[in-house]
Amino acid sequence: MIKVICAILEKQGHVLIAQRSKHMPEPLQWEFPGGKLEPNEQEQECLIREMQEELALAILPVTRLEPVVYTYPTKTILLIPYICRYVGGNVKLAEHQEYAWVLPQDLPSYDWCPADVPVVAQYLQLKQTAS
Ligand SMILES: Nc1nc2c([nH]c(=O)n2[C@H]2C[C@H](O)[C@@H](COP(=O)(O)OP(=O)(O)OP(=O)(O)O)O2)c(=O)[nH]1
């Protein structure tokens, strides 16, 4: 099973989401940016690296959410989400097609990678409980 770490990056009440390019697996679908955990890497370390490589952003992972297992036709992934705090940088796309800072309530209206759908639900649930 492939472990994928993803960031729910919060900044001024908005959340960063990214659209996969047509050359990536799961083309043109939206995701929480991140990537595969490498051997001998800590989850938070992986996320800090991926956010820097893919988006030129410095972030701090804060809260680990419940991981989601999802089976695609050719692979099974364990998607591990972290709510993250923005530290610095301006978005510079290296791999993605597009990005957007969206209000939490608008998250459900995007065409998500299927593995992310329960992550969005979990995040919104948590936000409701917190407020
Ligand atoms: N990064 C990320 N990947 C996701 C999410 N949801 C989801 O199903 N995936 C899938 C898409 C890919 O099949 C896989 C992650 O691969 P990736 O291509 O983003 O990771 P990577 O940058 O480390 O990969 P690579 O280019 O080194 O092969 O997980 C998500 O929210 N974020």
TrEMBL record:
Domain of life the protein comes from: Bacteria
Name listed for the protein in its UniProt record: 8-oxo-dGTP diphosphatase
Documented EC number(s): 3.6.1.55
Record key words, sorted: DNA damage, DNA repair, DNA replication, Hydrolase, Magnesium, Metal-binding, Mutator protein
Species assigned in the record: Pontibacter akesuensis
Any one GO BP annotation for this protein: DNA replication
Family as reported in the entry's similarity comment: Belongs to the Nudix hydrolase family.
Pfam family, one: NUDIX
GO MF terms held by the record: 8-oxo-7,8-dihydrodeoxyguanosine triphosphate pyrophosphatase activity; 8-oxo-7,8-dihydroguanosine triphosphate pyrophosphatase activity; 8-oxo-dGDP phosphatase activity; 8-oxo-GDP phosphatase activity; metal ion binding
Span of domain Nudix hydrolase: 1-128
Catalyzed chemical reaction(s): 8-oxo-GTP + H2O = 8-oxo-GMP + diphosphate + H(+); 8-oxo-dGTP + H2O = 8-oxo-dGMP + diphosphate + H(+)
Protein's UniProt keywords contain Calcium: no
